[in-house]
């Protein structure tokens, strides 16, 4: 059982002086200490967190504190925080001190959140199990022999094991939703362009989004309110006004839900996940929503298109790590070319190198048309298809992952198995729509199960309110 499940709970205790911030922070520091074996944090920001706790407590006493006062939050080690180390869980950036803060960090701090540390992840967010991290895998708190999911594995276990109240992750092809699913928390990937990525280390820029991992929908809504919205530093962020997501949570309007038939029929889908989703569908119907099964015939193209496009973008984004500007440098090289080669060969891990090579290949003359351009065309088809679906439906429902958390080492030998496990999450990433992963209780072995909901671009409030009313009813099943 977690001690605190939402910010509202903590704020009530703070306001009645049954708790103060230094005490709250100490609680989480102790939790981190006793759960070190889970390998969740790459860095714990003891000093800055303590001084902020004192500062925010002072504001609470004076009645001037911001919306997030009392929120102790972890940030994925892809998100820059001035004067703190950000490493992308890579040898390449080990010990790199951020010269400035990302917009998301600025916004958290402005509303008086306390950032407790940076969470472990797959190297440069490339992976689905947190096993590619230079700092080793994160362990799932439900079964420490199992993976946390990835790439935001540390962010998920931090929430699961009560090491802080909430975390930020990044989601390029499922990296917030899938670890949330493996760890029984709520993972929200907003619409592409909803939240600024200024100061967030890039993996694949036409996919990357910052997302939240929380124990309550209310906290996800609140974080969205704080983080979303235009940013002069990032021109890919939409100027659309940011709704009051927290006010919209009580909206219980009946929704039209489409279930992607092929995703539930897939042989690869774990039977317990299937049956818990079927139960959830009954629950949605009982709540007055309409549910219809629709066919989605492009399922086979999702994973190939995703891996062609993201590796192409990664090969370009990661060219900046050259051993000259910043990051790891080989000190024995005798020429500039040798310096580039050795620094990159020694600084990057195997998975990252594999993707840079693959991305360079699909972009190279002669293969560009066959792979990169084809994949772009598939992306267009997917976008058209999903728009058609959203003309008729408010929400699309599918699984998050084909299986619950698997054993550490179980899938590392065969990259295809690992890549194929992204089949249900990459649709929202390829099309840019928002998606949420919500818990459905545990299987017979105590491993978390979950489902995914997607909505139209910039309709996060639909996901949040629908999930909220769903979880109100099913909360007895959630840890
Ligand atoms: N598992 C996917 C990949 O390896 C997703 C990663 C992510 O969303 N950052 O690309």
Summarize this structure briefly.
The protein has helices at residues 7-15, 21-34, 46-62, 103-110, 153-160, 177-183, 217-227, 261-265, 271-286, 299-317, 336-347, 350-363, 369-392, 415-420, 426-431, 460-474; strands spanning 41-44, 72-76, 114-119, 139-140, 143-147, 166-171, 186-189, 209-214, 256-260, 290-294, 395-398, 435-442, 448-455.
**Gyration radius, in Å:** 21 Å
Mean pLDDT: 97
Secondary-structure element order, N to C: HHEHEHEEEHEHEEHEHHEHHHHEHHEEH
Q: Which ranges are low-confidence, i.e. pLDDT below 50, for 5 or more consecutive residues?
A: none
Cα distance spanning the termini: 7 Å
Major beta sheet, strand line-up: 1-3-2-6-8-7-12-13-11-9-10
Descriptive notes:
The chain is of the alpha/beta class. It has a domain at 7-251 and 398-478: Amidase signature (AS) domain (Amidase signature (AS) enzymes), CATH 3.90.1300. The protein contains 16 helices and 13 strands. The protein has helices at 7-15, 21-34, 46-62, 103-110, 153-160, 177-183, 217-227, 261-265, 271-286, 299-317, 336-347, 350-363, 369-392, 415-420, 426-431, 460-474; strands at 41-44, 72-76, 114-119, 139-140, 143-147, 166-171, 186-189, 209-214, 256-260, 290-294, 395-398, 435-442, 448-455. The strands form two sheets. Strands 1-3-2-6-8-7-12-13-11-9-10 form an eleven-stranded mixed beta sheet, with helices on both faces. α2 (21-34) packs antiparallel against α3 (46-62), α5 packs parallel to α6 (177-183) and α10 (299-317) crosses α13 (369-392). The mean pLDDT is 97. Residues 125-128, 151, 170-175, 203, 310, 422 line the site of glutamine (GLN).
């Amino acid at each position: 059982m977690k001690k605190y499940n939402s910010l509202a709970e903590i704020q009530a205790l703070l306001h009645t002086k049954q708790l103060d911030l230094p005490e709250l922070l100490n609680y989480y520091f102790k939790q981190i200490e006793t759960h070190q074996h889970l390998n969740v944090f790459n860095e714990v920001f003891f000093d800055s967190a303590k001084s902020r706790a004192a500062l925010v407590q002072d504001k609470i006493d004076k009645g001037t504190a911001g919306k997030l006062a009392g929120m102790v939050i972890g940030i994925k080690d892809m998100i820059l925080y001035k004067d703190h180390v950000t490493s992308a869980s890579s040898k390449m950036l080990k010990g790199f001190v951020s010269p400035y803060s990302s917009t998301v960090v600025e916004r958290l701090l402005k509303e008086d959140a306390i950032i407790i540390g940076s969470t472990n992840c797959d190297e440069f967010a490339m992976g689905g199990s947190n096993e590619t991290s230079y700092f080793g895998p994160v362990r799932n708190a439900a079964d420490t022999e199992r993976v946390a999911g990835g790439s935001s594995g540390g962010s998920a276990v931090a929430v699961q094991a009560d090491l802080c109240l909430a975390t930020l992750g990044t989601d390029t092809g499922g990296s917030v939703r899938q670890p949330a699913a493996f760890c029984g928390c709520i993972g929200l990937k907003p619409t592409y362009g909803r939240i600024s990525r200024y100061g967030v280390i890039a993996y694949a820029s036409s996919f990357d989004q910052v997302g939240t991992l929380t124990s309550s929908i209310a906290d996800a809504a609140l974080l969205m309110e704080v983080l979303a919205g235009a940013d002069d530093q990032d021109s890919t962020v939409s100027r659309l006004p940011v709704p009051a997501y927290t006010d919209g949570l009580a909206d219980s309007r009946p929704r039209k839900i489409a279930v992607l038939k092929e995703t539930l029929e897939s042989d690869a889908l774990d039977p317990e996940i299937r049956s818990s989703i079927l139960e959830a569908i009954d629950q949605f119907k009982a709540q007055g929503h309409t549910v219809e099964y629709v066919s989605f015939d492009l399922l086979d193209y999702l994973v190939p298109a995703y891996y062609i496009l993201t590796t192409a973008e990664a090969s370009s984004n990661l060219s900046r790590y050259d051993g000259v500007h910043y990051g790891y440098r080989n000190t024995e090289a005798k020429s500039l070319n040798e310096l580039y080669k050795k620094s990159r060969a020694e600084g990057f891990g195997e998975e990252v190198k594999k993707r840079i090579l693959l991305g360079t290949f699909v972009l190279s003359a002669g293969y560009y048309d066959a792979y990169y351009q084809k994949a772009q065309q598939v992306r267009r088809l997917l976008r058209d298809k999903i728009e058609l679906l959203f003309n008729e439906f408010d929400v699309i429902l599918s699984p998050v992952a084909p299986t619950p958390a698997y054993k550490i080492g179980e899938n590392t030998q065969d990259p295809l198995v690992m890549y194929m496990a992204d089949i249900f999450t990459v649709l929202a990433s390829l099309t840019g729509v928002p998606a949420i992963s919500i818990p459905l209780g545990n299987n017979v072995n105590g491993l978390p199960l979950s489902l995914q909901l997607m909505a139209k671009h910039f309709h996060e409030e639909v996901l949040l309110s629908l999930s909220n009313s769903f979880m109100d009813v099913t909360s007895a099943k959630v840890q």
